[in-house]
Design a protein that fits this description.
Blueprint (H helix, E strand, L loop, with lengths): L2 E4 L4 E4 L7 E6 L10 H19 L3 E8 L19 H9 L3 H18 L7 E4 L4 H13 L3 E4 L2 E4 L34 E6 L17 E3 L3 H11 L3 E7 L6 H13 L4 E7 L2 E3 L2 E2 L10 H6 L4 H9 L7 E3 L1 H18 L10 H12 L4 H13 L4 H15 L3 H8 L8 H15 L3 H13 L2 E6 L2 E6 L4
Parallel strand pairs: 3-4, 3-10, 4-5, 10-11, 12-14
Antiparallel strand pairs: 1-2, 6-7, 7-8, 8-9, 12-13, 15-16
Helix pairs in contact: 2-3, 4-5, 5-6, 8-9, 10-11, 14-15
């Protein structure tokens, strides 16, 4: 049985879906005002491993992810998500485009990277701007039940009326005045905007008529409205990054349960941050790497996926290029072994059982990877290894079957440019110029070929394109 750490209860629990054999799952997606970076994609990779684990064990998963294209304000970085500029409008001004153009461009960039990383496609990527009426309707329900009040800049949710407000969070309250300007009209520090009024002297790119006047939805309301539309008023799993655990997700719970009186989501799964060389990712430091940055250096998306697997999702992960190199080398070593095998009809049952035992232990992917390598090195028929390896990769999502079908048993056509570099490398090795030899090997890799040194000489493999 799958066991998951539930952020709400702060303990590992048996996963028991509301309806046997069926799972409803929602993941908070990106705010599409800029490119998603590799830290963002760690969260989505965690959700993907969870979905694949559920499916591998026979579950029918209905998966929804939102794309925030309105209402997420810059004040979120300063401790109050209801202050500052709308991220979409700010990006539009900076780039000389409309907010709609910004949303379209960065949504497509996200979806392209999502596909490259072989992440499970949700039933729907739900856009906030496609669900304005649903959000207005939910605010109206909250108003009718007495949970709202008006200020000069919007309609707010009164958190003091929710006895267990912030139960998911580790914060008791926002320290007003420390990093944000105090909103004197808010009744409580953690009250949050459900609907924001457009400025009187400015026409926004994105604004709509509502019962309270022209404006736009607050950031938090979209997820409640869309999750309940597609998954029902109560569903199984809500996933997201650890940064959403303190404010966004508690607000989702409060506004949803205020009108339904039902448990919004039974299980909450949060992924820890990714650091870069021990530091938080930021544009100012220039370390918020995109998938594009890695591809430009000759890495494949599968190399990053493999790297994600080597840290437990609830532990902070430290990205370095040395670690990415190690992941690439390990994956390529695995690929080069498997293409020599012929799949048998049965697998290595003992190792498959250990593999799923690891995953059922709160998605312990590093342990599952260790089991995989134990199997690969074990003294059992190669055909059984390949059968089980491909089954394991239905969860890992490294594209091993696709690689095998592209490469196994096919002669390698080596271009003259690559052959010349290989011969230069052989000469460098003969002269014990090992640094030069490694440099030439890396150049060969960037051209799509891998060199393996064996007792019988060198073997040249074409690296399958993603």
């Amino acid at each position: 049985m799958l066991k998951l750490y539930n952020s709400l209860s702060r303990k590992i629990e048996d996963f028991i879906p509301k309806v046997e054999g069926k799972v409803g799952m929602y993941t908070c997606g990106p705010t599409v005002y800029s490119f998603a970076h590799i830290g963002n994609f760690r969260t989505y990779a965690t959700a993907d491993i969870l979905i694949r684990t559920l499916k591998a064990q026979g579950m029918d998963v209905t998966y929804i992810m939102n794309l925030t294209d309105v209402g997420h304000l810059t004040g979120d970085n300063e401790g109050d998500a209801d202050t500052g500029e709308d991220r979409m409008e700010k990006s539009a001004t900076k780039e000389g485009k409309t907010a709609w153009e910004i949303a379209d461009f960065y949504s497509q960039a996200f979806l392209d990277d999502f596909k490259k990383l072989n992440l499970t496609t949700p039933k729907l990527f739900a856009k906030a701007t496609d669900h304005i009426q649903e959000q207005v309707d939910l605010v109206k329900r909250l108003e009718e039940t007495g949970y709202t009040y008006a200020t000069n800049d919007g309609i707010y949710f009164d958190t003091s009326l929710v006895k267990k407000y912030g139960e998911l969070s580790d914060l008791d309250q926002i320290k007003e005045g420390a990093r944000v300007e105090v909103n004197v009209q808010k009744r409580n520090p953690r009250d949050f905007a459900l609907w924001k009024f457009s400025p009187q002297d400015t026409k926004r790119h994105m604004e709509w008529e509502s019962p309270w006047g022209v404006g736009f939805p607050g950031w938090h309301i979209e997820c409640s409205a869309m999750a309940m539309k597609y998954l029902g008023e109560s569903f199984d799993i809500h996933a997201g990054g650890i940064d959403l655990k303190e404010t966004h997700h508690p607000n989702e719970i409060a506004q949803s349960e205020a009108v339904t009186h039902k448990t919004f989501s039974k299980y909450w799964v949060h992924s820890a941050f990714m650091l870069v060389a021990g530091e938080r990712m930021s544009k100012s430091k220039g370390n918020n790497y995109r998938l594009y940055d890695l591809e430009k250096e000759g890495y494949n998306p599968s190399h990053l996926r493999y790297l994600y697997l080597n840290a437990h999702y609830r532990q902070e992960m430290n990205f370095t290029f040395a670690a990415l190199d190690a992941g690439r080398n390990a994956l390529e070593r695995l690929q080069n072994m498997m293409v020599k095998w012929q799949e048998s009809e049965k697998g290595a049952t003992e190792y498959e059982e250990k593999f799923f035992e690891a995953l059922n232990d709160d998605l312990n992917a590093p342990q599952a990877v260790a089991v995989m390598w134990d199997m690969v090195k074990a003294d059992i028929p190669d055909g059984e290894k390949l059968h089980s390896l491909l089954k394991m990769d239905e969860v890992f999502g490294l594209g091993l079957r696709e690689y095998y079908e592209k490469v196994a048993g096919k002669p390698v056509d080596v271009p003259a440019e690559v052959q010349e570099l290989i011969e230069m490398r052989q000469m460098a090795r003969k002269n014990k110029q090992y640094i030069q030899a490694d440099h030439l090997r890396n150049k060969v890799k960037k051209l799509g070929f891998d060199i393996q040194d064996t007792e019988k000489g060198i073997e040249i493999k074409k690296i399958a394109s993603e």
